[in-house]
Automatic annotation (TrEMBL), chain A:
PROSITE patterns: ABC_TRANSPORTER_1 (PS00211), ABC_TRANSPORTER_2 (PS50893)
CDD domains the UniProt entry points to: ABC_Carb_Monos_I, ABC_Carb_Monos_II
Pfam families, A to Z: ABC_tran
Major localization listed first in the record, in broad terms: membrane
Keyword Translocase: yes
Superkingdom to which the source organism belongs: Bacteria
The protein's name: Monosaccharide ABC transporter ATP-binding protein, CUT2 family
A Gene Ontology cellular-component term: plasma membrane
GO MF assignments: ATP binding; ATP hydrolysis activity
ABC transporter domain mapped to chain residues: 9-244, 259-502
Organism annotation: Paracoccus denitrificans (strain Pd 1222)
ATP-binding as UniProt keyword: yes
Automatic annotation (TrEMBL), chain B:
Source organism per UniProt: Paracoccus denitrificans (strain Pd 1222)
Domain of life per record: Bacteria
Compartment(s): Cell membrane
GO molecular function, one term: transmembrane transporter activity
This protein's name: Monosaccharide ABC transporter membrane protein, CUT2 family
Amino acid sequence: MNQAAEFVLSLRDIRKSFGPVEALKSMRLDVRPGRVHTILGENGAGKSTLMKILVGVHQPSGGEMVLDGRPYAPHSPKDAAAQGLAIVFQELSLCNNLSVAENIMATHEPARLGFINDRKLRAEARALVRDLGLPVDVGAKVGHLSIAQRQLVEIAKGLSKPAKVLILDEPTSSLSDSEAEILFGIIDRLKARGTAIIYISHRMEEIMRLSDDITVIRDGAYVAMRKRDETSIEELIALMVGRRMDEIYPPRLAPAPGADVRPVLDVRGLSCAGRFRDVGFEVRPGEILGFFGLIGSGRSDVMNALFGMRSTSGDIRVDGKPVRLRNPADAIAVGIGFVTENRKEEGLALDAPVRSNISMAALDGFAGKAGFLRFGKERRAARAEVQRLGVRTSSLETLAGKLSGGNQQKVVLAKWLLTRPRVLILDEPTRGVDVGAKFEIYRIIRELAAEGTAILLVSSELPEVLGLADRIAIMAEGELKATVARGDLTPELVMAHATGTHQ
Amino acid sequence: MTQTTDTTISAGREQLRAALHQYGGILVSLIVLCVIFTVLNERFMTVANLTNILQQVAVVAIAAFGMTWVILLGEIDLSIGSIIAVAGMAGAQALAFGWGFAPALLFTLAAGAAMGLVNGVLTAKLMLPSFIVTVATMGIYRGLVSLPTNGAPAMISDPAWTAIGGSSWLGLPIIIWIVVALFLFNHILLSRTTFGRRAYLTGGNREAALYSGIKVDRLKIAIFTLSGVMAAVSGILLSSRLYSAQTNAGMSYELDAIAAAVLGGTSLAGGVGTMVGTLIGALIIGVMNNGMNMLSVPYFYQLIVKGLVILIAVWLDVRAKQRRS
């Protein structure tokens, strides 16, 4: 059997540059028909670029792609679909005001002379939905469906055209367990038909359960391919991050402060209607308090409340003195900093230079008489932070939007370090940054703690919390379920609290 | 030490290159327009006509300075044409009541500030889109103009008031001194102070500004108020030149002001723009108006040409934005 017949899709040495940025360096991929092939890599490893090349959104700068024995070079998603490659996006691309059937059949509605044959459209959509075993009514408006149901409709849409290769990009991220089971059933049926599936997911258990083959990528390059039966979660993670687990998190530089140290931030009975209830915790100078919880557990709401973005009842004390936090300016004034979850939405002005992004939260410190800015002082302070954090930028005047994800995140960190915070809230600080920057951010967090900053580290990546935090506060359903010291922690215990199954 | 000097020089050079990159296109457009009109009409390139252009530009330019602030913030103020008319009428009425020049001037500026404040409060506190708010207040303010006189124009005979638009100081019309002074005021406020920096940051990303402790509501109200004041100054100049307050004064000036700002590189998405650009943009509009008038281009053709120019400017802005990302 020759190679061409063995693989339905084959990529060799695929490269992609965006200006000076090399998003993909040397990508290879061999997908066999009737198998689930997972692509595993950290955020920023190049997965989305690879997908966009596969579906024709981007064209590779070099390399070779072969689909079904023929050279493959799609110039648009429509072209890719015509050649037998379908994709289900992670972000929903449905029209909420149209029906399920209209969405599923979008762009290839049965029509004559531009008039859509409605009955035929519904019949075809219904057949497809029945075939896939989806629990949705094709006549319903998409806007009335739950997010999970929409995800299933998205999948049906992806399958409405005959496909040799189907790409599923994090399809279970918004599905409940039972809905995920429906999806897995669909995947099994597709496999039996000989469809190849390229699967992208972060959930290791799911990957180990579904995949036949796993390709690991890192920093835009192919690292290794493994058969599922011949590998382990530990090996995959090590391949993905490029080092062993115990090397990832820098060790504590000094012992954690003991219970005799007065907390810098003390929160008691904090409640916010409809979001969280009776949350209480304290954090001491130099301590890293992890906040773990699943999406919707209320952890980000608590952080927003501490930053004056929610109206709350309860008691917040800084250095033992009660404070009122009505807006972020109040919070900054008492020494709280907040590296928010979405740096592009809440962190940076992308069209503004690095310099003014860094000085943004400490602007009054650079004001002279009558509100005139002291540019020299501002530049010096920004340059010092850039050097300290190792932000890779060609100059202070570079627009923030031109930096990579990791460097953008460092600019956000720099912004908050300039306010000299006593308490720094970090909400998902390593989301969407490459591996190298991740380690640097961990190092920075450690250094800040060593300098006496109290850190609230919110993360949905359990290893990150376990690797850095001195204590972990676990939230579920708007309540703080437990606060556990590092020594007593196991991943199982944390998950049990977070999912509410702890006895 | 040398390092500091080096970085200062390279920063200066970088600034110059950035300025050329930023204004090169519209400066060339302005020069090309001037050359075309000079060739087509020998009276265009004369001191008298250029002074005339500057005087004509003044009213729009000053309103456009205010508009630049608003657009920088990612908002829009469609009511300034009406504010121009109300300001003229407020001044005329105050003078008619015998308040004297200075009190009438202050009253007029206060009226502009109050109308801008209303726009700002409605936009910031009721969270209404500024487009809708100012479409509504555009109508309301335009209606207010006619209240004192039942729609008739009000004559102004106060010598100090009419001198603003009619006399000179050190060989230059006073009106030009006012434009220069307000340009410098707005330019410095925007580029050199924390207030201006906050406007850029808030326009660039409102959420990020909010999370960085910037009180964006307060800033928004202040900027709409500033826009109202600038429009009131425009109204004073216009009424002074016309020796009267007309109920249809400043009609559609908001469009010229928007055009000047956008031509000058202010991004309608917010966060990008300068007063220098707006001034050049206003000059382009002034030169087009003046040149086409001298060539006796019918008014409706002028509208078409101006519309096309705005379309092209916005398209260039969008394209530049796409390239950046």
